[in-house]
Design goal:
Length: 144
């Protein structure tokens, strides 16, 4: 896949590392700014719900996001995974969708080793936990 030439701001990887190690935020949302850099667009305080995360994603603009998904597996063990979302809603302008699609690999590489799951989401059904949890290798899991 071709790359867009978009760079990733250093604080993006630093904040995801903090999220991984200290669990200081429930989610981080990233956008491509006017200067062509991936930057932090929004942050969910520790304890923010998955519904709050979904509501924070713009309805008509692509974004990247990392969510700290806390759940109990089918054996009742408490677990968490950092999940990377490439959000590209159906109603977004095609030019924006293409820019985000061609930047995804660059950002995933910058976050290498920090996120455990990478997902593509284009609508509310793709964000539904009944769809997300099985893709995280958590069959039979439920949110904590």
């Amino acid at each position: 896949m071709a790359t867009s030439g978009v760079g990733v701001d250093k604080p993006v990887a630093e904040e995801v590392t903090k999220m991984q190690l200290k669990r200081h935020a429930a989610y981080l949302i990233f956008k491509i700014d006017e200067s062509g850099r991936v930057v932090i667009d929004a942050r969910g305080d520790k304890g923010a719900s998955y519904d709050a995360f979904c509501a924070a994603l713009p309805a008509a603009s692509p974004r990247f996001a990392v969510y700290d998904l806390a759940f109990e597996n089918s054996d009742g063990c408490k677990m968490s995974k950092l999940v990377f979302f490439a959000w590209s809603p159906e109603g977004a302008p095609m030019r924006d969708k293409m820019m985000y699609a061609s930047t995804k690999a660059t950002l995933v590489d910058a976050l290498s080793g920090r996120v455990q799951v990478t997902l593509q989401a284009n609508d509310a059904d793709d964000l539904d936990l009944r769809s997300v949890l099985p893709k995280c290798g958590t069959a039979g899991a439920r949110m904590r």
